Amino acid sequence: MAARTREKDLTAAQVKELTNALVTKRDELLDALKSRRSNSAKQETQRGTGDEADQASEDAETALETRLMDRDAKLLREVERALDKVKNNTYGLCEGTEEPIGYARLKLRPWTRYSVTYKEELEREQKRQGEG
Q: For burial by CB atoms within 10 Å, which of 24, 70, 105, 125 has the most?
């Protein structure tokens, strides 16, 4: 089956709006990651100056910052993937079915890779595999 193009499903204005949202999100994530890395570096230089309770608190903060950086980095990859799809003229198509994702879903989550129907199917399959 030949890959469909986004023009059949999204208007040019919708693509532009969603692209702008993706660029804004990318910039926010880049700023957040830069800030977290800077804070992490500052914490590392101040490490070990307190008692055991302070050290435990610092360790918990470091673990939280690491999880947040990992989450932001993962989301940044998804946003960049979506921006690549805009360039490749495949934005707005479900990666599982090549069917349109739908403007309403893309508006809520412009970096989404799957339609609601396909995502639910994936989740059911994962649940079945987890039970088996």
A: 105
